């Protein structure tokens, strides 16, 4: 599962994906979409674009691709090209809250869940916290304007990437276009895991 703003290192060894990476580099887009697999449709209805930051080609043709999550998308139509899946997509953005009272409530919820996330992370065993920091880096800081980014605050995505949650649940959060709904889902996950920590 890939998320906006979250690093996603990939080890590419299958010839079809090596071709896809090479094409995205040669055309200059330096990006491609990532979806989790789906037994009925081949891949999920929602995904995230990955921006290629660097590619390290190995002598045997494999490559290590340094990517970071970009825009979220919804799949409109599925296709196939030279053995790899393709799709027509539409990008997703969070719906902005304009009502001042609702925005104030959203900020309060945001701050509460952010603090809950910080507490959960600090209460992890050192071993787990160190592994998360090595793989994903530190949790992004709280942003002043929680609606500035089309995907909402970066810390939400970082947290979803590190929480041990079923991919279908993660996918439901990725597809949400309401920051409030996303924060409520994250709050439920954190409440569940915080109960486990206190045992």
UniProtKB/TrEMBL annotation:
Residues 1-194 form the Lon N-terminal domain. Pfam families: LON_substr_bdg (PF02190). GO terms for molecular function: ubiquitin protein ligase activity. Gene3D superfamilies: LON domain-like. It comes from the Eukaryota. InterPro entries: Lon_prtase_N, Lon_prtase_N_sf, PUA-like_sf. This is Lon N-terminal domain-containing protein. It comes from Anser brachyrhynchus.
